[in-house]
Fold:
Amino acid sequence: MGSIPTSRPNSRTNPEDSVLIDFVIPPILSDDSSSTPVQSISASQVDGRHSSFERPHADWFTPFEPLSWLRGGHAQTLAGNYWPRVLREIPHDPVAVDVDPADRSRVLCHCHWQAEQVRADRLTLVLLHGLEGSSDSRYILGITQLAWDAGCNIIRMNMRNCGGTDTWSPTLYHSGLSADVEAVLHYFVDLYGLRRVAMAGYSMGGNLVLKLAGELGAQAPEWLVGVVGVSPAIDLAASADALHEPSNCMYERHFLRNLMRRFRRKSELFPDIYSMDGLGQIRTIREFDDRITARHSGFSGADDYYFRAASARVVARITIPALVLHALDDPFIRLTQESRHALMANRAVTLVETQHGGHCAFLQKTNRSDATSFPFVPRDCRHWAEASLVRYLMAVAGHGDGS
Structure:
């Protein structure tokens, strides 16, 4: 295995040593005056009072320039969900991993392994989907293709009950189950002797991987070399309430319909545990979490669940290299000022916020002359966040092949 660089992005840092910068630097625009700047925020108050921005000085970074006709958050979000992709089949092994011996819960992982003789030395990416997604979510498959071509191993992890595994666990899945991610990490590291492992998650999955990184803090194992959250639901309460805003009713109805369908299925599979009786009409995500998620997952209510399961509580303790990508026009993911400051004050974390990008979309212009040339990752990729996270993880952990 090639040596891992010891420059600052790779070092374990003590968040208490960092200093919050509080001064104003105008956003740096690209040469195209019509483009939207990408900001890596050192300090920020995006309520119009003052902001401090600095373009990241890193080989992995390419500024995000949205498609000119897709600048709105809703437009990016919806287009990102349906944008045509050309994805090829990459050989994979389905593996069931025990994550909770107490209730015998298992999760399904789809593993893409490089050749056996180099497997342990290659960078391994563990990818985690969002709410009501799966290991077959389109962004997960997009990252898989990029990372595979870059020489990485990939583990596409399903949360409990996802990916057709409702019978594999008597429990529900929720945003606090970071221990499941840790169990998957240790399972494959112990099985194959993996030397470099990184985590990446979208939305709810982003909250889970950041939560685990914060919980591990300075005790993170040496082989855990990086973490990325894309549109992460760091502040669960604020984001759940944003889903109930009138402009977001279509998203809330979509999630709620799928969640209720899954709960009905669980009540049929485990009638001694779950019942539809007495629930009444559930109209919002907060009501679902209050009456169902919290009740069956050991929380006193929605507020308790949102507080205890949110990575916002622990992001200040992250010590491994971390990247957070967030669009300011995300329709329903909210990043509070407290969480933003906690991220900015942590020297291990790189926070990149863009004016546009929507939720988990980040569809960008292609055929750009300023596109970063980075080994193994295409110069132009329509899906900016997917390419950025692969570039970032290879920059802080070494390329997929260890170089």
About this structure: The first helix runs from residue 73 to 82.
